[in-house]
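Trying the structure run again after the queue cleared.
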Amino acid sequence: MSRSPSGDRVALWRNPTFRALLLQGVLLAALVALIAFIVGNTMANLEARGITTGFGFLDERAGFSIPQTLIEFSGDSTYGRTFLVGLLNTLLVSAMGIVAATIIGFAVGIARLSPNWLLARLAGAYVEIFRNIPLLVQILFWYFAVLQALPSPRDSLSLMEVVFINVRGLVIPDPQPLSGFAATPWALLVGIVAAIALGIYAKRRQARTGQALPIYWLGAGLIIGTPLAVFLLTGAPLEWSIPELKGFNFSGGVTVIPELAALWLALSIYTASFIAEIVRSGILSVPSGQVEASRALSLPEAITLRKVVIPQAMRVIVPQLTSQYLNLIKNSSLATAIGYPDLVAVFAGTTLNQTGQAIEIVAMTMAVYLTISLIVSALMNMYNARTLLKER
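Done. Tokens:
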């Protein structure tokens, strides 16, 4: 029994708070029971069919090769290393796609609002064409219709006889670091930290004095110039492996396989068409009075766009941009259509077929995509919090 506000006794089952807690408890118990039933039933079926469970298979020999690896891999490597190779390849194409799609999307989105009639119509045609063609079809187009039409290695297109393009990919010189190269990565880290510190100082200085520093140029100079200076002062501790045609293929150098190029192009162009519309909507959300005020101050159009319009539009752009980044990362799993060795192809594909450990492999693959998406969402939410309008 409980008491009402007037002091009268009320039956416990009439108390809305108690009923809500009771209903939540029942639903939670039912969910736990359902999960326990599914797990128990699955384990019983696996045992009846003689299928082993666990993650011991990760230490077993894989016995197959992978055409592109960012870490050392051979047929004697384990399935655990296969997982790492697939993960790194997925992260590589996702990161490349996000950077390219963002640049293209912002450029096209701004072009759609250009007073130049031809530029605006071309940008509009880009958006309407590429966002209405399925991504898988675009991947197949770039791979089979464009990259597979390139010449054979013997008839490669060359640039200064050191860079070659053919049906097997892009072949470029491979830098081989020597002993003195170890200081260069540390110099890059120092340049990044110095650029961040300079940005904080410039922001405080502008708030105090009203004078702005060319932070983008200075920051780029620190990030590029610091490791470059160390690189040159240590005697350029690199030697280059130049690709040479031997027989029917090239030896030496680094080969960027056509599967990576096709997937990167398709992901970037397709996602950029959606980002362009997001950028356009964000810019249009900025009150026209802001632009008129900047023109009244005789600010150039480029500075008005960069300093007035885009910073305010980012409050609208960032939340939608996050969704497109997550879509791009998940869409990279379509790489299996053209044989790019991402996580799904080499781990949830080849490894699963060889080991039969479907539950463990699928669960690990799902966990990877979930983790990557949550990390990207967290980073974008942190940036979004910084761009929000601070109200008093």
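The chain has a mean pLDDT of 85. Worth checking whether this holds up in the mutant runs.
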